[in-house]
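Progress note, project year one: complex with glutamic acid.
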Amino acid sequence: MTDVSLGPSGYRGRLAPSPTGLLHVGHARTFWIAAQRAIKNRGTLILRNEDLDPQRSRAEFVRAMMEDLRWLGIDWSEGPDVDGPYGSYSQSERRAHYLEAWRRLREGGFLYPCTCSRKDLAQAASAPNDTDDEPVYPGTCRKRKDVAEFREPAGVNWRFRVPDGEVVEFTDLNLGQQRYAAARDFGDFLVWRRDDVPAYQLAVVVDDAAMRITEVVRGADLLKSTARQLLLWRALGYATPDYFHCELVRDAAGARLAKRHDALSIRHLRESGMTAEKVLEMAGWP
Ligand code: GLU
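Model obtained:
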C-alpha cells in the first residue's frame, strides 16, 4: 500500500479520474507515478472525482475507480470518501467555486459568449487538426457586445479569449521545455458549456488552486491543455503548480491504450486473474 501518512512536506499531488468508464492500464501508469511522487516528496495525495459531465458520469464508475486504485495499492488522504479541508472532492458538488471564477473572468474581460453550432465550427476548421484536440476556434463571436447582459452563464457557450500569438512556455518536470503559441496551437477555448456545465479547463484550474495542489501529474495528452490552463491561472491571479506529464502507454502498433478501454480495463484484467504487479508491469512500470 502507498503510505499517505507521510507528509505533510507541503507537497500536494492529486489523482483526477473522470468516472465515465472503467480505469484502464494507461490510468494505472499515470496514477502509480503520481502516487510514487507524492511518497518520494513526503507529501499529501488527494483523489478528486471529476464527475462534471452529468451525461457521461456514473456513480458505479466512481465506486469502481476507488476500488481499482486501492487494489493497485494506491491510496489517498483526502478524497470523496475521506474528508479533507477543501470541501467536496467531487466536481459535481463544487459548482459555486466555478461560478465565482466565471464571474471574475467575465468581469475581467477574459470571456465572451459564443453561439456557434458544432456544424459552424466543423465548417470553419480549415486545416486538419490534432485528432485528440479541439479545433482552433475561428473567432466568429469574439466581437459580440452583449457580454454584460449575462448574469448567469447558462444558455450559451463561454470562451476564453487567448492572447493572439503569445507563446506559452513551461518546463515540464518529466518532458522538459514546452512551447505553444496561442491562436495557432490552440484557440479560444470553452470554459462553460451552453448546457450549463463548467468546462474541464476551468474546473481543473479552480480545483487545483482551491485544493492547494503543488504538482500536477497527468498524461502527456494534456500538455497542450496545460498551456491553456496557464492562461487561466494567470487571469485568475493564482501562483501556478509544477507539472509532470507522463508518457502515454501505447500498444505494439503505437495506438494509445486509452482507445481500447474495456479489454484493458484494470477491472477486466483483475477478474481474469492478473495480479496488481503484473498490471503495473504491463503499464510499463517501472
Ligand atoms: N479528469 C481528467 C481525465 O480523466 C484529467 C484531468 C487532469 O489530470 O487534469 O482525463
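The CA atoms of residues 103 and 201 lie 15 Å apart.
Strands lie at 12-15, 44-47, 111-114, 157-160, 167-172, 176-181, 189-192, 215-219, 242-246.
No further modelling is planned for this target in the current period.
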